[in-house]
Amino acid sequence: VGTSMGGLIGMALASLPNTPVRKLVLNDVGPAIRFEAIQRIAGYLGLPLFWHSEEEAAAALWSVSQSFGPHTPAEWLALTRPQLVATTKDGVSGFKSHYDPAIAVPVRAATPELMAAGEALLWQAWDRITAPTLLLRGAESDLLSPETAQAMTQRGPRAHLHELPGVGHAPTLVAADQRAAVRDFLLGP
Hints:
The structure is a single chain. The protein has a 4-stranded parallel beta sheet with strand order 1-2-5-6, with helices on both faces. The protein has a two-stranded antiparallel ribbon with strand order 3-4. The chain has 8 helices and 6 strands. Helix 1 (5-14) packs across helix 6 (112-128). It has helices at residues 5-14, 35-42, 54-63, 73-80, 104-109, 112-128, 146-154, 176-187, and strands spanning 2-3, 24-27, 84-89, 92-97, 133-138, 160-164.
């Protein structure tokens, strides 16, 4: 199960000869991703932010993540906590993002030309995948277009497409219907 970048990694792994991947779930990602979405993500990814509390961090992350779909404050706080690491800044305790900010470097370096070259390679990888594949797409996604999602059902592993209404990039797989779609696929024949 891979969301966004994790899905791209999953595609690459599933496309290898003798891959251990027996079933693949891609969460709102495919071989072609929209440049505008990459630009949006580059606008906040890797920024050296500091928050005084988990609640402050959750509010800040929600401000750039509302496309993930509706969540209660408790659900969003639970989704935020694993993204944080305790730190100090100028002697004050607080939190920062729990990932390497250098992940933003290639994202910010993306150009339409580089993305087109990467897309060609990703479609080649897609066409080598033989594992049964579930493609989840937020119906409001600005990253995975409806056209790309449809193409993914027609070639390569011929993914089963499951669109999630009221969600953009990317579904958090917290809602019961989202979890059920993944569970039913992974536990099914």
